[in-house]
Here is the input.
Amino acid sequence: MTTPAVPTPEVAEKVFGDRLPLAVRYVEHLATSGIERGLIGPRERDRLWDRHVLNCAVLGEVVPADANVADVGSGAGLPGIPLALARPDLRIVLIEPLARRVDWLDEVLADVGLDVAVERGRAEEPSVLRRWEGADVVTARAVGPLARLAGICLPLLRQGGAMLVLKGASAPEEIVRDAAAVRALGGGEARIHEAGAGVVDPLTTVVEIPRTGAPRRNRRKERR
Here is the structure.
């Protein structure tokens, strides 16, 4: 079985620069062992570049320089690995609770040669929070509603840091629906970014929510 070819090499090179060969190697892993071991659905094989790798890599347009990034629920390394390939200035940890996925991530990172940390656990676990809290950016890829994601991601952030969530067309409705819950969890006003002009079609929708305070329940405890 052949690996899906880079659909538009000049566009992919614009995103990954001299790291494009590493991105190609990552896609090889996704298309073979990633499918065999259940990290990627077999129907996604022909859409790996556009729908997954490039779609995630353009998130780098929204991430500040030299940031510490925690990728929550990383799974097959999406968006963390494409982001690391596109933005070598970032320091990234992939947080993933399932052992089989962690094993795969370790194997892929060793083969590709990326200096990216992998943490087995859930982001909300105290031991994970102790090791990785204070991040500048926390990323997640459509793994749940914004209110739930805010409860998981915001505690990992420093004050003023931001969670960046890849979402679909329903993002504006989600922002309105979950605004009160997000505020109660210490999140600020959400913004929508569209990334990847000239790279992906449709554009990648990114919801940015800054951490502006502590959850309200923590504030009550602090006043006691």
Observations:
- The CA atoms of residues 70 and 101 lie 16 Å apart.
- Residues 218-224 have pLDDT under 50 and may be disordered.
- The chain has nine helices and seven strands.
